[in-house]
Amino acid sequence: MKFLLIFPTNAIQPPEFKLTNVDEGHRAKAIMNKNNNTLMDNHFPKGDTFEINRHPLYWVATLNSTYVQAMEKRLKPIGLDITRWRVAMILKAHGSLNISQISKLAVSRLPTTTKIIQRMEKENLIRSIPDENDGRVNVISLTSYGHEVLIESLERTQRFFSHLFENVTEDEIKTVNRILRKLVDNIVE
């Protein structure tokens, strides 16, 4: 078991602390965050105590890459990839949408989404028809073939998702989702 001992190095503002990892004998300096009184230095890449494998975004990126590779392996035999699967899942959840809406929900650039939609239309996975209210906008929906392929993809990935969440509780999933939403909300460009 690892223990962190925190003790002040001086009593003058701003408060500085030394962290000693008793298990590894690792000593590190961390600056206390003024806003919420948490030790943040090890979460900032520029920080003195930054360790990449302790950074939450390292694990987000690792999870995403591993997830994409695992899904691609399961989707490839039925002619899908992760981007087209994501679009199909969005259309399943929301029904008919325009390309801008799909792009926003897929967290994808509009030109990229447009290319994905064009490819899916050529493969008869989706249909694109002009919006009744605005002929400049096309409404995208799954075809019956697209529904069939999506159902097959869900059957192919069910065991993967069951295994992925095998030892994870509902409360843990809610906590992770809450924290990830908070991080997304904090990203301001």
Question: In summary, what is this structure?
Answer:
The chain has 189 residues and is an alpha+beta fold. Helices cover 49% and strands 16% of the residues.
Overall description:
With 189 residues, this protein is of the alpha+beta class. The protein folds into 2 domains: 4-51, no CATH class; 58-186, Arc Repressor Mutant, subunit A. The chain is built from 6 helices and 6 strands; from the N terminus they run E-E-E-H-H-E-H-H-E-E-H-H. The protein has a 3-stranded antiparallel sheet with strand order 1-2-3, with no helix packed on it. A 3-stranded antiparallel sheet has the order 4-6-5. Strand 2 and strand 3 (26-31) form a beta hairpin. Helix 1 (56-75) packs across helix 5 (144-164) and helix 3 (99-106) packs across helix 4 (110-122). It starts with a strand and ends with a helix.
SSE layout:
Elements: E1 4-10, E2 16-21, E3 26-31, H1 56-75, H2 82-94, E4 97-98, H3 99-106, H4 110-122, E5 126-130, E6 138-142, H5 144-164, H6 170-186
Antiparallel strand pairs: 1-2, 2-3, 4-6, 5-6
